Amino acid sequence: MRLFTTVAGLRCYLHLRRSEQERAGQKLADANPVTVGLVPTMGALHRGHLSLIHRARQDNHLVVVSIFINPLQFGANEDFQTYPRTLEQDQQQCEQAGVDVVFAPTASELYGTVLSVNNALTQVLPPAAAIASLCGRFRPGHFEGVATVVTKLLNLVQPDRAYFGQKDAQQLAIVQRVVADLNVPVEIVSCPIVREMSGLALSSRNQYLTEEERSQATVLYRSLQQAEQLFRAGNLKSSDLLTAVQAELTTVPTVKPEYVELVDPVTLAPLEWVEESGLLAIAAHIGSTRLIDNVVLRNRQPILAIDGPAGVGKSTVVRQVAQTLGLLYLDTGAMYRAVTWLVMQSGVALDDQPAIAELVSQCQLELENQVKSLPSTPKVWVNGQDVTQAIRSAEVTAHVSTIAAQPAVSDR
Ligand code: PAF
Questions:
Q1: Which of 4, 221, 223, 312 has a CB 3.0–4.6 Å from the CB of 9, allowing a cystine?
Q2: Which of 15, 46, 49, 142 is the catalytic position?
Q3: Which protein residue has the closest C-alpha to ligand 1 atom 9?
Q4: For 119-131, how does the pLDDT look when each residue is reduced to its tens digit (9 = 90+)?
Q5: pTM to 2 decimals?
Q6: CA 69–ligand 1 middle distance (angstroms)
């Protein structure tokens, strides 16, 4: 494992690793480009961070963990000075988890000297609506600081994927939004909350808690679970769910709630009802420690996917399962066939991936509700034209696997 504290060292290392692989790729036709996973952290690593690192390790050739306590995201009265600094232990944990690079710059390395000069730094400003709720209301400037440092880290590392915990749900939603709005070429991977047996969500700030406070803090998750039970019993109304959380929180008077809110998990706008999904989130003070926790309440039908080799009867099984459970059946095979038909019709070469990407992003693809249409073949339209028969032709069958394998098609 390598430790870099400078941008120059990090960039040089990543450049060398990527170009080594490129050279290998020129010799070996099937050598894939290096994929890089970034896990941004502020250190004081715990099992929650390790779950992100393990996921990154599974998905990528190279794993970079950044450890940087970002001054920009702390308010004047917050815990920047006392935030746990445990670089040596963090490095050991990273080494054991198979991390390739730890990037641990100083504030002046990352921001230069401009941090001390008011308004001298270019910052990333998340949408006002996304910072108007939850922690954004109580931590002015926090998400601007997070968005700025995450954007810098993404620019420096240029990872294929970056990993964030669902525990900081507002941060995750804002990072996803920033990446989409600024067209940053990275996949944001969200990882589930890791909890202690008691239900307490792991956090670097749990270190501040006394034994007694740690036990009091378990009321956060218990109160979310009360609301979750109510929700599962069919109550989708925000005011009832919030009342259930608050009622449980009052059983531990030393826990002082800052907010309890139910918002849309993507836009973060407050909800009156959970239609599809809702993010139920809490922040509370226990002694001098501020903790957050959340659950996502989902009120939508499950998505089932069946994978396997061609010709083993996947479609038949899926259609029957969908019919029995009353679910919508999406025939991805027909979607790929439709795109293949479109490419062939347009005269674009089958290996001209940029042109295919343009075609795919502009085309209107419609599939008939396939369960309703059973037992006849469901209809497929491309740009308003009925192609149900055409996509079953021998020419389309011959080329569909080439087209389906292209990222521009499969990612869409
Ligand atoms: O979640 C954190 O630890 C921080 O907010 C992050 C994403 C590393 C940015 O400083």
A1: 4
A2: 49
A3: 146
A4: 688 999 999 999 9
A5: 0.87
A6: 8
